[in-house]
Amino acid sequence: MHREIELPYGHRTLCAAVPERNLVGVYVPQPVPACADPEAEIARALAEPLGAPPLRTLARPGERVVVLIDDHTRATPTARILPPVLEELLRGGVRPEDITILIAHGTHRPSTDEEMRAKVGEEIVRQFRIERHQCTDEQSQVFVGLTSWGTPVWVNRTVLEADRRIGIGHIGPSPYAGYSGGYKLILPGVAALDTVNANHSLVPLGFRRPGRVDIPCRLDIDEAGRMVGLDFVVNVVLCQNERIARAFAGAPEEVYREGVALARKVYEVTVPPDMDIAITAGYPYDLDLYQAVRAVEYADAVVRPGGNILLVAACPEGIGGDDFYRLMADSSKRPDDFLRDVVRRNGMVTFAVLGYALARIKAEKRLCIVTEGIPSADLEAMGITPFPSLQAGIDQLLQEHGPETRVAVFPMGSSTIPVM
Which residues, in sequence order, are bridge partners of residue 50? Predict the structure, then answer.
């Protein structure tokens, strides 16, 4: 007897069959119900802010307001949240020309015009000024100070020159920071590349501690965020179908605390340890390999040494940069060599810390992939075994491990945190 499994893959789905005797389970985020009326839920959160006055009384006429939003790589339903936030500001007397919407790209490429319109909606594009943060534009950055972790904080000038700073985002799994949301809109969102590099040099201290928000990288993010300041945030927790489960609004710390408590109920799933094979999908973070491998970092938690992780990721934009490819294709590198790159700021630290994590994982486990976006020769150069199809990969791995093989499947691997 076999069981059919389905994994999202770009804009479509891949299907395959796994013998029932080998399939330990299919693990997805918990089925927390979506709110019945997203607009009403956002309105409720804005009317009942946590630890902050209502938004319409917070910003005063004549004040300059910056609204930070995440970019096209993130699932936040910004087009639903942004209009009522802007309406609250306008009701409080803020003029439209005093409002700037700043896309917090972090180190990501800037959104295209099409991606921007899809993110915020056509009406917002026509009515308000929208800027795109560029982490390498030093002329647009201002120094704020040093965190106690030693991170020098430079942020976008538009943020510091605003009288009021508002943030919109979602709270979901983050391999680097435990959970996204809150002050991540400041760091890495609107920070300088040097600031992001310094902060991400702390990431190895959180290796194999998924879902933790007391790790150094997250603590540093929160400290930098407090230094810059956010007056008000709206964060949502999403269901597994990316609909809004609940919205939270108000002071960043209180919103984050309440939001993470719910997010844990959604994204943390009890899974037996010591799997021989984990099959995991990178969607919706499978634009490129650099984003998609977060699913590998989570699946790593349940696979025994000597086991296999099979990543399913469309990667229409390829690997995620030539620098990342060169780093991963250097077969002479040991895990600690990536740490030297971190210390010496040899290239982007974000690449080096991910290289470190993958090197640690590949030293113990075999990493495989099903993708159409990356040539097989490039994958093999990076130490990743390509398979022509999902079924072919499953069949070969089952043959290699034998009849007692234990398999776990994560159809939403980028947003499923296994808990032993």
Answer: 250
| CA–CA gap between residue 221 and residue 200 (Å, rounded) | 10
Spatial neighbors of 218 by CB under 8 A, at least 6 apart, are: 176, 177, 178, 206, 212
330-371 pLDDT, tens per residue? 989 999 999 999 988 877 788 899 999 999 999 999 999 999
**CA dihedral sign, ordered 149, 150, 151, 157:** positive
Q: How far apart are CA 69 and CA 169, in angstroms?
A: 6
Nearest to 279 by CA among 111, 405, 167: 405
Cβ proximity of 358 and 333 under 8 Å: no
**Alpha-carbon distance 303 to 234, whole Å?**
36
The CATH class given to the 2-27+271-419 domain equals alpha beta
Q: Are strands 232-238 and 244-250 parallel, antiparallel or unpaired?
A: antiparallel
What burial letters (b/e) apply to 272-286, b meaning 16+ CB within 10 Å?
Answer: eeebbbbbbbbbbbb
150, two tokens: 């030693």
Least Cα distance to 32 among 237, 256, 271 occurs for 237
Tens digits of per-residue pLDDT, 180-224? 999 999 999 999 999 999 999 999 999 999 999 999 999 999 999
CATH 1.20.1090.10, domain 38-266, yes or no: no
Alpha-carbon torsion (330, 332, 334, 337), positive or negative: negative
Are 378 and 364 within 8 A, CB to CB? no
* Residue ranges per structural domain of the chain: 2-27+271-419, 38-266
